[in-house]
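User: Sequence recovery, please. Input:
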């Protein structure tokens, strides 16, 4: 049974363009994977806390040497990483806030990017992503358009998420973008239609 892990990051529960397009994606995925399971992690309904000093210490302490404080501080990280590793497909839907990702999404990222669990490092070979053999899809929504070079330089969200997912080991990464949600009604409608067409066109490849 294929599993899709959906990560919702928009503070808007209603009238969220990223959530709406994610619904479209999930419906299409379920149509092509009738035996599929969708796990939803809504970062707003249950926002993960920022990592603490004890969390960081626990990350760098082997599990057989962790204190009760370390285990408690890393319990959520363990849970989130297990969700990620058990999934076949990762779907992140997020708006752009102030040229980057929402803080709730960054908090989730800080919980799941963990040495020995989702990446390794050695002086000889450098960094190695451990989240392999999975597909990653990212749905983004922005109030403005970041297509031209001047605005593109202000988009810190797309390159960051692409780099982060690649660092973790994903090799199949695809973005679906909705733009102009608050500045250009025509662009918004056009980009939304294009994103839906791109999702549909993937068909069985999803």
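Assistant: Recovered sequence (206 residues):
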């Amino acid at each position: 049974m294929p599993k899709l892990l959906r990560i919702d990051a928009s503070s808007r529960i209603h009238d969220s363009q990223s959530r709406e397009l994610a619904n479209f994606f999930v419906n299409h995925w379920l149509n092509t994977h009738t035996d599929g399971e969708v796990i939803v992690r809504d970062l707003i309904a249950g926002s993960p806390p920022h990592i603490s000093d004890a969390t960081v210490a626990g990350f760098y302490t082997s599990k057989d040497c962790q204190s009760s404080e370390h285990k408690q501080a890393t319990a959520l990280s363990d849970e989130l990483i297990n969700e990620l590793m058990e999934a076949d497909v990762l779907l992140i839907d997020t708006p752009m806030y102030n040229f980057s990702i929402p803080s709730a999404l960054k908090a989730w990222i800080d919980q799941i990017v963990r040495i020995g669990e989702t990446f390794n490092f050695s002086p000889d070979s450098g960094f190695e992503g451990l989240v392999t053999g999975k597909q990653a899809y990212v749905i983004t929504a922005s109030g403005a358009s970041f297509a031209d070079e001047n605005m593109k330089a202000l988009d810190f969200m797309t390159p960051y998420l692409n780099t982060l997912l690649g660092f973790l080991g994903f090799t199949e990464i695809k973005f679906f973008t909705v733009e102009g949600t608050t500045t250009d009604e025509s662009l918004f409608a056009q980009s939304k239609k294009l994103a839906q067409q791109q999702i549909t066109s993937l068909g069985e490849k999803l």
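The helical segments are 17-32, 53-59, 68-86, 103-112, 149-152, 157-168, 185-202.
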